[in-house]
Design a protein that fits this description.
This protein has 111 residues and is an all-alpha fold. It contains six helices and no strands.
């Protein structure tokens, strides 16, 4: 009984997701790991969501693990510097994954 309920719920959720009109339709962005050559084609709002979806949990893990006196990521006024960094990273490295640029940005930020 639970399996049927789960399947129904999953299919409804999937249908609603498809009907919301997502701008980014590539499966690689579903898991926040687009190739850099694809990164330039992603709309700005979707890029911002991907950046927040990757860098915020990465930072939370970092803060939990290292307990820094100042959380530099939280102190940022916006995620804009990360967007610029990843855009530049991907332009210079089209064969890499955008997440590598996101991780490099975060590593540089928390040094």
């Amino acid at each position: 009984m639970m399996t049927g309920c789960f399947r129904f719920t999953f299919s409804v959720a999937l249908t609603l997701l498809m009907l919301t009109g997502m701008t980014v339709t590539s499966a690689q962005t579903l898991f926040a790991n687009p190739r850099c050559d694809f990164w330039a084609k992603i709309e700005r709002p979707d890029k911002m969501q991907l950046l927040n979806a990757v860098i915020a949990p990465l930072n939370m893990a970092h803060v939990t693990r290292t307990k820094p006196a100042v959380d530099k990521f939280v102190m940022l006024d916006s995620i804009e510097p990360a967007l610029v960094f990843v855009d530049d990273y991907c332009a210079a490295n089209p064969d890499k994954q955008a997440i590598e640029g996101m991780m490099t940005y975060h590593a540089d930020l928390v040094k």
